[in-house]
Amino acid sequence: PTRSTLMHSYSSQFFKINIATNATMMKLTILSATVAATAAFAPANTLPVTKSALFSTPTEEEVVTTESATTDIPADIPQPASVAVKPINGWVPDESLPCYGLPGAIAPTGYFDPLGFAQTGITLNEIKRNREAEVMHGRVAMIACLGYFAGEQLPSPFGITGPANDQLQQMPAIPFVMLASTIAAVEIRRARIGWVEPDFGDWSKTLWKLRDNYYPGDVGFDPLGLKPTNAKDFANMQTKELQNGRLAMIGWAGMCSQELVNHRTIMGTIEFYQKVFAGVNPYEGCGDGVIC
Length: 292
Prior knowledge:
With 292 residues, the protein is mainly α. The chain contains five helices and two strands. The protein is 46% helix and 3% strand.
């Protein structure tokens, strides 16, 4: 046979071997992927499973727990005495409950924690700190939502105008310093009420640590006397505040984003789209470079 014939024969054999190898590798890949996919549906290890549908009050709480088998402990082995936890506004931290039993979950979602901020293993201090942050941000967001509408519609003593996003930098120096000082004083007071004093000798023990007898968000400010004394009523009011605060955070984020995009006030945006839907040119009568 000629050289070209031999080369053609070798090439054909190599090509067939390569195809067979690739086919084998493809089969192994498919097999491993199939095993991995089916493993996801395999039953997990037998562990206690807790399903809960939490609502605003303890009377509406429904917890279904499948208990694991427990071994009997001999009577002659001394057991540690259970430590009684003093209720805080009627709330007693319970590690077996989602979010340690704090109120704030309502139908239809019930207990909703897709990112795992209150998953099993999170310490009580972390739960309280996250709830503290949620309550305080919700209160600030509710004030901010009111401020967006009031600040843009009511006349300002300092001649501040335009969208709320652009109003802070229009404040004169003295009122701005007074505002910043007030915020700092309020935050320092809140820290002294809710947080453990820092230990500079071993700062890791007290950093981010809340007091054991501190209820998240309860800084003692209730000038109208609206705080209920009954545990059930307090849980209901706390849930209402949380839900309104959560809605306000979403609402504020939407208003802030809207003004960053079109640089119009909230009412100005509403009037703009009223003209658009009415078939009127919203830019009629606007000069060059003027937002109207």
